[in-house]
Amino acid sequence: MELAGSTPTTADAPRKDIFILSGQSNMAGRGGVLLHSHPRKWDGVVPPECAPSPNILRLSAHLRWEVSNEPLHRDIDSRKVCGVGPGMAFANAVHNSGSCGGSIGLVPCAVGGTAIREWARGEHLYQNMVRRAKEAVKHGSGEIRALLWYQGESDTYTQDEVDAYRMKMESLIGNVREDLALPSLPIIQVAITSGDKYLEKIREIQLGIEAENLRCVDAKGLELKEDNLHLTTEAQVKLGRMLAECYLTHFAPKQQPRAS
């Protein structure tokens, strides 16, 4: 297993089912971040569904594989305080299903407060996501199974943002598939549950986008923190399970029956 501080080799590294986690703060994770503490801090509570496992790895900001633990985005969304997101609950659910052949590799890329225009091809966030995804599959260490995407709250403020959102999201889907040379890359998008004046219009766009191997998981109804913007820890666990169910239902490789 290639972990931080060791040299990865193809021979001794278990193949990974790799998942890109991207978008803004509710993907990066704010579950358990104390809103009224100064300075702001995470409460450190890790639900059992988000417990670390030697079979679940994360690609660090320094592009090294390490055992994954909360907060997943601590060195990616580094200007904010990160807490629990959906990634670990997702990874544990997928791994426990027995659908993956080896270990799971998570590639955190989400950054809080970012609008869809900041994820356009050529912009830093997009280029960093593609760079990290390509690094994740070096040495033949695994296969990218899906991109999990939760973003849109920052595009609910103006009609201009709404008018541009569909085209920009469709461009993102096409660009990331082209740049990773994965034309059928599964993408699971989350329909947002919080935002500003045009929340419902952005949700309508997200729920209405149609593309091959694109699915949408609806976060509406999940519990929000006092700020009415970020999901609670419990809601993040539920979302992680919802994402896992979507992946397992629509995209997970079919397991071959074992010979008796």
TrEMBL record:
A Pfam family the protein falls into: SASA
Domain annotation Sialate O-acetylesterase: ranges: 16-248
Organism superkingdom: Eukaryota
SUPFAM superfamilies recorded: SGNH hydrolase
Keywords carried by this UniProt record: Hydrolase
Cleavable signal peptide: none
Molecular function per GO: hydrolase activity
Protein name (Swiss-Prot/TrEMBL): Sialate O-acetylesterase domain-containing protein
Organism classification: Eukaryota, Viridiplantae, Streptophyta, Embryophyta, Tracheophyta
